[in-house]
Known about the structure:
By secondary structure, the chain is mostly helical. Helix content is about 80%, strand content about 0%.
Amino acid sequence: xxxxxxxxxxxxTADPICPATDQARTAxxxxxxxxxxxxxxxxxxxxxETLDGVCR
Length: 56
């Protein structure tokens, strides 16, 4: 999965992903804290941190 995210991050079309997913990433983080189990919290955290790192 990470190579796919890395490939997307380096593609010229990756820029629209950042503003388009900002609210969704925030909502996912809140949902994972509210009712996600340990595995979903870890998986969500990896996804959110990866996208946040690309979108800075």
